[in-house]
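Sequence design from tokenized structure. All designs in this work follow the same two-part layout: the structure record, then the generated sequence. An example of the structure record is given first.
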């Protein structure tokens, strides 16, 4: 993704950012969407930007579209991404505080942790959510919040009669495996998590967090706020 982001910023165009999964047909991420302005963002993202307060940690910031929007709103934001090319591009685009950093190694205290474009996906597997909540507990300032969006992908398993038939087995249906390719460069396979709100809320409660569904989108997506229980 970093190669695609750097290409688009340099040339105004980019090749195909291809996405592979063993469970679904090949897909593609339009690189231009990673550079969208605030007026091009979906309603759920705009609501999250509005609710973000204090010092914001923008996780998996990519090309920095959300960080730039927050800066334009006068908000303090630290953008992190594991891709050095993405971070370099964010800095060139004017993100004031952009760091090459793995979320799982992040330190400090933040009032808002922002994880958009299904940012919770980096957890990878449902069973790793407790580790996620333990980590963010150390990152949140008093009264802090986590704003995430995700999607209940159960609709992908709807049969011809309109009945949802979830796959059998021990795994959660929202656990995906992906690989990306840009031009001649392929990533390793990586796990990605889509989690329905009820499941997220149940695990959050077990880990000492309250989950609030702020808004729902038109495609089984939703925006949630997670806050530590008193």
């Amino acid at each position: 993704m970093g190669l695609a982001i750097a290409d688009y910023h340099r040339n105004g165009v980019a090749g195909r950012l291809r996405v592979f999964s063993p469970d679904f047909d090949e897909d593609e991420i339009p690189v231009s969407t990673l550079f969208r302005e605030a007026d091009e963002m979906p309603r759920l993202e705009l609501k999250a930007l509005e609710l973000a307060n204090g010092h914001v940690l923008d996780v998996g910031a990519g090309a920095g579209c959300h960080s730039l929007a927050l800066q334009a709103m006068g908000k303090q934001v630290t953008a992190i991404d594991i891709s050095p090319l993405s971070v370099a591009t964010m800095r060139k685009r004017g993100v004031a505080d952009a760091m090459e950093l793995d979320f799982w190694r992040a330190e400090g205290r933040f009032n808002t942790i922002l994880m958009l474009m299904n940012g919770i996906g980096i957890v990878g597997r449902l069973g790793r959510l407790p580790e996620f909540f333990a980590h963010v507990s150390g990152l949140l300032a008093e009264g802090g919040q986590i704003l995430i969006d995700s999607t209940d992908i159960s609709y992908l398993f709807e049969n011809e009669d309109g009945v949802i038939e979830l796959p059998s087995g021990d795994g959660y249906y929202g656990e995906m495996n992906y690989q990306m390719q840009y031009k001649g460069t392929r990533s390793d396979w990586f796990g990605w998590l889509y989690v329905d709100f009820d499941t997220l809320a149940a695990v959050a409660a077990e880990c000492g967090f309250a989950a609030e569904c702020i808004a729902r989108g038109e495609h089984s997506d939703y925006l949630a706020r997670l806050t530590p229980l008193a």
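The chain has six helices and twelve strands. We note this feature because it recurs in several other targets discussed in the main text.
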